[in-house]
Specification:
- 2 copies of one chain form a homodimer.
- With about 170 residues, chain A is mainly α.
- The first copy, chain A, has one domain (about 5-165): Up-down Bundle (Four Helix Bundle (Hemerythrin (Met), subunit A)), CATH 1.20.120.
- Chain A is built from 7 helices and 2 strands; from the N terminus they run αααααββαα.
- In chain A, strands 1-2 form a two-stranded antiparallel ribbon.
- The longest helix of chain A is centred in the last third of the chain and has 26 residues, at about 130-155.
- At the A-B interface, helix 1, helix 6 and helix 7 of A face helix 1, helix 6 and helix 7 of B.
Chain lengths: ~170, ~170
Protein backbone atom coordinates (compact mmCIF):
# COMPACT_ATOMS: atom_id res chain seq x y z
CA UNK A 1 0.00 0.00 0.00
CA UNK A 2 1.09 3.53 -0.62
CA UNK A 3 -0.21 6.92 -1.64
CA UNK A 4 -0.19 8.52 -5.04
CA UNK A 5 1.95 11.52 -5.90
CA UNK A 6 -1.27 13.37 -6.74
CA UNK A 7 -2.82 12.63 -3.33
CA UNK A 8 0.37 13.86 -1.65
CA UNK A 9 0.43 17.14 -3.54
CA UNK A 10 -2.44 18.81 -5.39
CA UNK A 11 -5.23 18.39 -2.79
CA UNK A 12 -2.99 19.90 -0.09
CA UNK A 13 -2.01 22.79 -2.35
CA UNK A 14 -5.71 23.47 -2.98
CA UNK A 15 -6.58 23.27 0.71
CA UNK A 16 -3.93 25.74 1.77
CA UNK A 17 -4.43 28.13 -1.16
CA UNK A 18 -8.11 28.29 -0.23
CA UNK A 19 -7.07 29.01 3.35
CA UNK A 20 -4.77 31.77 2.15
CA UNK A 21 -7.57 33.27 0.09
CA UNK A 22 -9.88 33.32 3.12
CA UNK A 23 -7.13 34.77 5.35
CA UNK A 24 -6.54 37.59 2.87
CA UNK A 25 -10.28 38.24 2.85
CA UNK A 26 -10.25 38.57 6.64
CA UNK A 27 -7.24 40.87 6.43
CA UNK A 28 -8.99 43.14 3.97
CA UNK A 29 -12.11 43.28 6.17
CA UNK A 30 -9.92 44.03 9.18
CA UNK A 31 -8.24 46.90 7.36
CA UNK A 32 -11.56 48.26 6.15
CA UNK A 33 -13.23 48.07 9.59
CA UNK A 34 -10.32 49.86 11.25
CA UNK A 35 -9.69 52.34 8.44
CA UNK A 36 -6.21 50.95 7.91
CA UNK A 37 -4.75 51.59 4.47
CA UNK A 38 -4.65 48.07 2.96
CA UNK A 39 -1.19 48.87 1.59
CA UNK A 40 0.10 48.99 5.16
CA UNK A 41 -0.75 45.31 5.58
CA UNK A 42 0.26 44.35 2.04
CA UNK A 43 3.70 45.87 2.57
CA UNK A 44 4.07 44.67 6.16
CA UNK A 45 7.05 42.45 6.93
CA UNK A 46 8.45 40.84 10.07
CA UNK A 47 11.95 42.22 9.60
CA UNK A 48 13.42 44.82 7.25
CA UNK A 49 15.13 42.28 4.99
CA UNK A 50 12.23 39.83 4.89
CA UNK A 51 9.69 39.89 2.09
CA UNK A 52 6.43 41.76 2.70
CA UNK A 53 3.02 40.08 2.68
CA UNK A 54 2.40 40.68 -1.01
CA UNK A 55 5.61 38.88 -1.96
CA UNK A 56 4.97 36.00 0.43
CA UNK A 57 1.64 35.40 -1.34
CA UNK A 58 3.24 35.68 -4.78
CA UNK A 59 5.90 33.13 -3.82
CA UNK A 60 3.30 30.77 -2.32
CA UNK A 61 1.42 30.98 -5.62
CA UNK A 62 4.67 30.31 -7.52
CA UNK A 63 5.44 27.34 -5.26
CA UNK A 64 1.99 25.84 -5.76
CA UNK A 65 1.84 26.16 -9.54
CA UNK A 66 5.49 25.10 -9.75
CA UNK A 67 4.88 21.90 -7.79
CA UNK A 68 1.77 20.96 -9.77
CA UNK A 69 3.35 21.77 -13.13
CA UNK A 70 6.72 20.14 -12.50
CA UNK A 71 5.21 16.93 -11.19
CA UNK A 72 2.78 16.87 -14.12
CA UNK A 73 5.64 17.48 -16.54
CA UNK A 74 4.10 20.61 -18.02
CA UNK A 75 5.45 24.15 -18.20
CA UNK A 76 5.10 26.38 -15.15
CA UNK A 77 2.82 29.30 -16.06
CA UNK A 78 4.43 32.67 -15.43
CA UNK A 79 2.43 35.25 -13.49
CA UNK A 80 3.69 38.83 -13.35
CA UNK A 81 4.29 40.02 -9.79
CA UNK A 82 2.15 43.12 -10.13
CA UNK A 83 -0.48 42.70 -7.41
CA UNK A 84 -1.09 45.81 -5.31
CA UNK A 85 -4.38 45.06 -3.56
CA UNK A 86 -5.96 42.24 -1.60
CA UNK A 87 -8.39 41.69 -4.48
CA UNK A 88 -5.50 41.33 -6.91
CA UNK A 89 -3.76 38.83 -4.63
CA UNK A 90 -6.98 36.87 -4.33
CA UNK A 91 -7.33 36.92 -8.12
CA UNK A 92 -3.82 35.51 -8.36
CA UNK A 93 -4.74 32.72 -5.96
CA UNK A 94 -7.84 32.02 -8.04
CA UNK A 95 -5.70 31.83 -11.19
CA UNK A 96 -3.30 29.51 -9.38
CA UNK A 97 -6.20 27.32 -8.29
CA UNK A 98 -7.58 27.28 -11.84
CA UNK A 99 -4.24 26.02 -13.11
CA UNK A 100 -3.89 23.40 -10.37
CA UNK A 101 -7.47 22.22 -10.74
CA UNK A 102 -6.86 21.57 -14.42
CA UNK A 103 -4.01 19.17 -13.60
CA UNK A 104 -5.32 15.62 -13.69
CA UNK A 105 -4.24 12.91 -11.25
CA UNK A 106 -2.90 10.79 -14.11
CA UNK A 107 -0.50 13.61 -15.08
CA UNK A 108 1.04 13.69 -11.60
CA UNK A 109 0.89 10.04 -10.69
CA UNK A 110 4.06 8.22 -11.61
CA UNK A 111 6.17 11.35 -11.15
CA UNK A 112 8.13 9.89 -8.19
CA UNK A 113 11.28 9.55 -10.28
CA UNK A 114 10.56 12.31 -12.81
CA UNK A 115 13.46 14.73 -13.21
CA UNK A 116 12.61 18.10 -11.76
CA UNK A 117 14.78 21.17 -12.21
CA UNK A 118 14.23 24.32 -10.21
CA UNK A 119 15.79 27.74 -10.96
CA UNK A 120 16.98 26.24 -14.25
CA UNK A 121 20.03 27.89 -15.77
CA UNK A 122 20.59 30.09 -12.74
CA UNK A 123 23.42 29.78 -10.21
CA UNK A 124 20.77 28.35 -7.85
CA UNK A 125 19.72 25.51 -10.17
CA UNK A 126 18.64 22.41 -8.25
CA UNK A 127 17.90 18.98 -9.66
CA UNK A 128 15.63 16.47 -7.96
CA UNK A 129 13.59 13.39 -8.54
CA UNK A 130 9.88 14.13 -8.22
CA UNK A 131 9.35 12.50 -4.84
CA UNK A 132 12.30 14.24 -3.19
CA UNK A 133 11.29 17.55 -4.78
CA UNK A 134 7.73 17.31 -3.48
CA UNK A 135 8.35 16.05 0.04
CA UNK A 136 11.63 17.71 0.96
CA UNK A 137 11.59 20.98 -0.99
CA UNK A 138 8.26 21.86 -2.60
CA UNK A 139 5.82 21.32 0.23
CA UNK A 140 7.98 22.80 3.02
CA UNK A 141 8.69 25.87 0.89
CA UNK A 142 5.03 26.36 0.02
CA UNK A 143 3.86 25.95 3.61
CA UNK A 144 6.69 28.20 4.81
CA UNK A 145 5.48 31.12 2.70
CA UNK A 146 1.80 30.68 3.53
CA UNK A 147 2.64 30.46 7.24
CA UNK A 148 4.79 33.57 6.96
CA UNK A 149 1.92 35.44 5.28
CA UNK A 150 -0.31 34.31 8.16
CA UNK A 151 2.32 35.38 10.71
CA UNK A 152 2.64 38.86 9.18
CA UNK A 153 -1.11 39.38 9.41
CA UNK A 154 -1.37 37.89 12.90
CA UNK A 155 1.48 40.15 14.02
CA UNK A 156 -0.53 43.09 12.69
CA UNK A 157 -3.59 42.19 14.71
CA UNK A 158 -5.76 40.49 12.09
CA UNK A 159 -8.08 38.12 13.95
CA UNK A 160 -7.19 34.77 12.45
CA UNK A 161 -6.38 31.45 14.08
CA UNK A 162 -4.72 28.23 13.10
CA UNK A 163 -8.03 26.80 11.93
CA UNK A 164 -7.96 29.48 9.23
CA UNK A 165 -4.58 28.18 8.13
CA UNK A 166 -5.53 24.50 8.13
CA UNK A 167 -8.83 25.28 6.46
CA UNK A 168 -11.14 22.68 4.96
CA UNK A 169 -10.22 19.31 3.54
CA UNK B 1 3.70 3.90 -8.96
CA UNK B 2 3.31 5.72 -5.72
CA UNK B 3 5.16 6.69 -2.56
CA UNK B 4 5.13 5.01 0.81
CA UNK B 5 3.56 6.57 3.88
CA UNK B 6 6.97 6.38 5.52
CA UNK B 7 8.67 8.28 2.68
CA UNK B 8 5.97 10.96 2.90
CA UNK B 9 6.37 11.47 6.62
CA UNK B 10 9.32 10.46 8.81
CA UNK B 11 12.20 11.67 6.60
CA UNK B 12 10.58 15.12 6.29
CA UNK B 13 9.97 15.30 10.04
CA UNK B 14 13.64 14.48 10.62
CA UNK B 15 14.82 17.05 8.08
CA UNK B 16 12.83 19.88 9.60
CA UNK B 17 13.51 18.93 13.23
CA UNK B 18 17.21 19.02 12.42
CA UNK B 19 16.69 22.45 10.86
CA UNK B 20 14.87 23.62 13.95
CA UNK B 21 17.70 22.35 16.15
CA UNK B 22 20.25 24.29 14.07
CA UNK B 23 18.07 27.42 14.08
CA UNK B 24 17.81 27.30 17.87
CA UNK B 25 21.59 26.94 18.04
CA UNK B 26 21.98 30.08 15.93
CA UNK B 27 19.48 31.90 18.12
CA UNK B 28 21.39 30.99 21.27
CA UNK B 29 24.67 32.17 19.71
CA UNK B 30 22.98 35.39 18.62
CA UNK B 31 21.73 36.03 22.14
CA UNK B 32 25.12 35.25 23.63
CA UNK B 33 27.04 37.48 21.18
CA UNK B 34 24.71 40.42 21.81
CA UNK B 35 24.32 39.85 25.55
CA UNK B 36 20.60 39.28 25.13
CA UNK B 37 18.98 37.27 27.92
CA UNK B 38 18.03 34.01 26.14
CA UNK B 39 14.69 34.11 27.94
CA UNK B 40 13.79 37.21 25.93
CA UNK B 41 13.94 35.15 22.73
CA UNK B 42 12.44 32.04 24.29
CA UNK B 43 9.43 34.04 25.46
CA UNK B 44 9.15 36.18 22.33
CA UNK B 45 5.90 36.04 20.42
CA UNK B 46 4.52 37.78 17.35
CA UNK B 47 1.33 38.95 19.06
CA UNK B 48 0.18 38.96 22.68
CA UNK B 49 -2.22 36.02 22.28
CA UNK B 50 0.12 33.91 20.15
CA UNK B 51 2.35 31.27 21.71
CA UNK B 52 5.97 32.22 22.44
CA UNK B 53 8.96 30.53 20.84
CA UNK B 54 9.32 27.89 23.53
CA UNK B 55 5.75 26.71 23.05
CA UNK B 56 6.04 26.72 19.25
CA UNK B 57 9.00 24.33 19.56
CA UNK B 58 7.16 22.13 22.07
CA UNK B 59 4.16 21.88 19.75
CA UNK B 60 6.37 21.13 16.73
CA UNK B 61 7.93 18.31 18.78
CA UNK B 62 4.45 17.08 19.74
CA UNK B 63 3.33 17.21 16.11
CA UNK B 64 6.35 15.25 14.93
CA UNK B 65 6.19 12.46 17.51
CA UNK B 66 2.41 12.39 17.16
CA UNK B 67 2.57 11.88 13.40
CA UNK B 68 5.21 9.17 13.61
CA UNK B 69 3.50 7.35 16.49
CA UNK B 70 -0.03 7.52 15.15
CA UNK B 71 0.95 6.33 11.69
CA UNK B 72 3.02 3.54 13.24
CA UNK B 73 0.10 2.59 15.47
CA UNK B 74 2.08 3.00 18.68
CA UNK B 75 1.44 5.25 21.67
CA UNK B 76 2.51 8.88 21.49
CA UNK B 77 5.22 9.48 24.12
CA UNK B 78 4.38 12.31 26.47
CA UNK B 79 7.04 14.96 27.08
CA UNK B 80 6.52 17.45 29.90
CA UNK B 81 6.51 21.06 28.66
CA UNK B 82 9.17 22.23 31.08
CA UNK B 83 11.93 23.57 28.80
CA UNK B 84 13.32 26.93 29.85
CA UNK B 85 16.57 27.21 27.89
CA UNK B 86 17.75 26.73 24.33
CA UNK B 87 19.73 23.67 25.46
CA UNK B 88 16.59 22.14 26.96
CA UNK B 89 14.63 22.77 23.77
CA UNK B 90 17.42 21.19 21.75
CA UNK B 91 17.40 18.21 24.11
CA UNK B 92 13.67 17.86 23.50
CA UNK B 93 14.25 17.89 19.76
CA UNK B 94 16.95 15.24 20.21
CA UNK B 95 14.51 13.10 22.22
CA UNK B 96 11.89 13.58 19.52
CA UNK B 97 14.40 12.56 16.86
CA UNK B 98 15.39 9.50 18.91
CA UNK B 99 11.75 8.43 19.03
CA UNK B 100 11.17 9.05 15.34
CA UNK B 101 14.39 7.35 14.31
CA UNK B 102 13.30 4.21 16.15
CA UNK B 103 10.13 3.99 14.05
CA UNK B 104 10.71 1.53 11.22
CA UNK B 105 9.35 2.02 7.70
CA UNK B 106 7.36 -1.20 7.95
CA UNK B 107 5.47 0.18 10.97
CA UNK B 108 4.33 3.24 9.03
CA UNK B 109 3.84 1.74 5.61
CA UNK B 110 0.32 0.56 5.09
CA UNK B 111 -1.09 3.21 7.42
CA UNK B 112 -3.02 5.02 4.65
CA UNK B 113 -6.37 3.83 5.98
CA UNK B 114 -5.36 3.36 9.64
CA UNK B 115 -7.75 5.07 12.03
CA UNK B 116 -6.11 8.06 13.65
CA UNK B 117 -7.68 9.97 16.52
CA UNK B 118 -6.32 13.31 17.67
CA UNK B 119 -7.25 15.09 20.94
CA UNK B 120 -9.00 11.86 21.94
CA UNK B 121 -11.79 12.28 24.46
CA UNK B 122 -11.61 16.06 24.34
CA UNK B 123 -14.18 18.38 22.79
CA UNK B 124 -11.67 18.83 19.95
CA UNK B 125 -11.42 15.13 19.10
CA UNK B 126 -10.80 14.55 15.40
CA UNK B 127 -10.89 11.26 13.53
CA UNK B 128 -9.02 10.62 10.32
CA UNK B 129 -7.69 7.94 8.09
CA UNK B 130 -3.89 7.90 8.12
CA UNK B 131 -3.39 9.43 4.69
CA UNK B 132 -5.75 12.34 5.31
CA UNK B 133 -4.27 12.89 8.76
CA UNK B 134 -0.71 13.04 7.43
CA UNK B 135 -1.24 15.16 4.32
CA UNK B 136 -4.01 17.52 5.35
CA UNK B 137 -3.51 17.94 9.10
CA UNK B 138 -0.26 16.55 10.47
CA UNK B 139 2.30 17.96 8.05
CA UNK B 140 0.76 21.43 7.66
CA UNK B 141 0.47 21.76 11.44
CA UNK B 142 4.05 20.66 12.03
CA UNK B 143 5.44 22.96 9.35
CA UNK B 144 3.24 25.80 10.62
CA UNK B 145 4.80 25.67 14.10
CA UNK B 146 8.38 25.32 12.89
CA UNK B 147 7.87 28.24 10.49
CA UNK B 148 6.36 30.31 13.28
CA UNK B 149 9.36 29.54 15.51
CA UNK B 150 11.58 30.67 12.63
CA UNK B 151 9.47 33.82 12.13
CA UNK B 152 9.70 34.76 15.82
CA UNK B 153 13.50 34.51 15.71
CA UNK B 154 13.78 36.28 12.37
CA UNK B 155 11.56 39.07 13.68
CA UNK B 156 13.97 39.41 16.60
CA UNK B 157 16.97 39.83 14.35
CA UNK B 158 18.49 36.35 14.45
CA UNK B 159 20.46 35.92 11.24
CA UNK B 160 18.78 32.93 9.66
CA UNK B 161 17.50 32.38 6.15
CA UNK B 162 15.14 30.02 4.40
CA UNK B 163 18.01 27.61 3.71
CA UNK B 164 18.21 27.12 7.47
CA UNK B 165 14.54 26.15 7.47
CA UNK B 166 14.76 23.76 4.53
CA UNK B 167 17.97 22.29 5.85
CA UNK B 168 19.56 19.12 4.52
CA UNK B 169 17.84 16.16 2.90
Amino acid sequence: MSISMYAASVPLLKQILQSLDAILGKAESHASARKIDPAVLLQARLYPDMFPLVKQVQIASDNAKGIAARLAGVGVPSFADTEQTFAELQARIAKTLDFINAIQPEQVNGSEARDVVVYKGSPYEMQFQGQTYLIHFGLPNFLFHVTTAYAILRHNGVEIGKDDFIGKF
